[in-house]
Amino acid sequence: MRRGPGTAYRRAQSLRFLLTRDRRAVVDFLRARWPVPVPLGARLRLVARFVAITNAVRTYHTQAEMLAVAGAILARAGGRDLTVVEAGCGKGGSTAKLSLVVRLAGGRLHAFDSFRGIPPNDEVHETIWGTRVTFRPGAFRSRLRGVERVLARHGAPEVVRLHKGWFEETMPRFDAPVDVALLDVDLASATRTCVRRLVPRLRPGGVLFSQDGHLRATVALLGDERFWRDEVGVEPPRVEGLGRAKLLAVFAPSGR
After folding, report:
1. pTM for this predicted structure
2. Domains of the chain: which residue ranges?
3. Which stretches within the chain are classed as H helix?
4. CA gap 237, 63 in Å, rounded
5. What distance in Å separates the CA atoms of residue 241 and residue 76, rounded to the nearest whole number?
6. Does residue 8 have a pLDDT over 70?
7. In 3D, which of 48, 139, 166 has the Cα closest to residue 97?
8. What is the dotted CATH code of the domain comprising 7-251?
């Protein structure tokens, strides 16, 4: 009896697709230099694990986006109490990927999610490409135990702490300095809450990523100088990709 393609074959096909679509990001990741040595074999294995997680768990990002965040984490490895924050776990795929990188970097990952999906809201969004998007209450819902299972199977649960609840309830209780943060929260109101709480906690040289840069409401918020000065309490920082890219990078304000 003829058998279907094996696991090794499927992984090879997935990696070939990744190298076609996100070739530049993969090459940059493999060539990057970081404070701690990461052998080429370990980098290749991490890329392969990323592909395997995407094949197993529904995710809402590209591999290029996650490799950019992974590179930022590894660029800050070796420091004291390396701390990474994720806001918005989805089904746990991104959390699992981040946990593998954080373990490699010797840090801790704090992942925040309501585990109830998108909260009630009346926001209607338009993307930078001109399409309209509505985030219905309950969308992207995941279960805490489901994310825990994904972490146990695909990630490094020993470096992760999951924080359950709405951001406005859980973020104020978090008081650790932050090196890298990743937001995938969709709503402008959620972005406002997370940025207000996390940017003041960024260490010098820290960075906050947002995967919501394709939403005009996010662009308007992060481009508003009054928001930064009046609500966040900092001078407007450099925001890389604003108005042009889905993945934005907000760098720690000067003087931090």
Report:
1. 0.91
2. 7-251
3. 7-21, 23-31, 40-56, 63-75, 93-105, 144-154, 167-170, 188-198, 216-222, 225-226
4. 26
5. 21
6. no
7. 48
8. 3.40.50.150
